[in-house]
Write a structure and sequence with these properties.
Layout (H helix, E strand, L loop, with lengths): L2 H11 L1 E4 L5 H24 L7 E3 L13 E5 L1 H4 L1 H6 L3 H11 L3 E9 L8 E5 L7 E2 L4 E6 L10 E3 L15 E2 L17 E3 L6 E5 L4 E3 L10 E7 L4 E2 L8 E8 L6 E5 L8
Antiparallel strand pairs: 1-11, 2-3, 3-4, 4-13, 4-15, 5-9, 5-12, 6-14, 7-11, 7-13, 8-10, 8-12, 15-16
């Protein structure tokens, strides 16, 4: 599929799959780093500093008695990991996002979703932009499979074309393993599809795409590196609890700048 065809498919369907974007060596490096981050989580837990450093445990686990916490996700992974900081700027990854969004790219989110063995919670259907203060709501979320994502271990589910529904309200995301994918009774789920991915393959999807994922009850984790990218040509629209200005890493373009600041009082202001 050419770059033009990729963009056309993404704009029509709201998602794009690129297989085998990472090499086996890159996947192995990421897995070793996930092991290191779990050890870091154990240290932070002993100090009572886990949540303050953006490490989140699985919320429905009641028998977590080990030294290493059972993690649901780690936010702001660039802060804790050079490996995942570098992965956000992977040339093949960035090239595809530029095809979809243009040359200038900011990084909104850098996250590990860990779906731990036996305990991985389900994720209810939602749109990412329902929770993000960026207008227009047209970011690209990137989901990189760091091991095989299957129906059994809770691969992502999407509703193709749902990015054309407009911004909607969804509620909480993390759900118990036996919970339904949505509590809403006004959704047509007939077009919903599962998106299994081989390790190293990548799902790109629009931030208005309705998506969720099942639980992981298997004996193996399902690890995913998540990044969200956007154009600097947007408005920052925080609520009253959020800062009136926020600085984002520049991933590509903007004349080589390292950071870019958006404010709530102007369209944007660079730093």
């Amino acid at each position: 599929m050419s770059a033009q065809e990729q963009k056309a498919f993404f704009e029509d369907q709201g998602y794009l799959i690129i297989e085998d974007l990472l090499t086996a060596q890159e996947i192995d490096t990421c897995q070793h780093e996930i092991g290191r981050l779990h050890q870091l989580a154990a240290e932070l837990q002993r100090k009572g500093e886990l949540a303050a450093n953006n490490f989140q445990c699985e919320p429905f686990v009641t028998d977590a008695n080990g030294e290493v916490p059972i993690l649901r996700k780690i936010e702001q992974t660039r802060t804790h990991s050079a490996v995942f900081g570098q992965l956000s700027a992977h040339p093949k990854l960035v090239a595809t996002v530029q095809t979809l969004l243009g040359d200038d790219l900011l990084l909104f989110r850098s996250t590990l979703m860990l779906k731990p063995a036996h305990h991985g919670s389900a994720h209810a259907l939602h749109q990412d932009s329902a929770y993000w203060p960026i207008d227009p709501p047209a970011l690209v979320t990137v989901s990189i499979a760091l091991n095989d994502a299957t129906l059994e271990n809770g691969c992502i589910k999407v509703i193709p074309g749902s990015h054309k529904w407009g911004l909607q309200e969804w509620g909480g995301i993390a759900q118990k393993q036996d919970a339904p994918l949505t509590q809403r009774d006004d959704l047509d789920l007939s077009a919903q599809i599962d998106v299994p991915l081989k390790a190293g393959s990548v799902l790109f999807f629009h931030s208005l795409m309705a998506h969720g994922s099942g639980a992981n009850t298997t004996p193996h984790p399902r690890n995913t590196a998540l990044y969200a990218y956007f154009s600097p040509h947007v408005r920052y629209t925080p609520d009253e609890k959020q800062a009136t200005a926020r600085t984002f890493p520049v991933v590509a373009g903007l004349n080589g700048s390292e950071e870019f600041t958006l404010t709530a009082t102007a369209t944007n202001a660079s730093q």
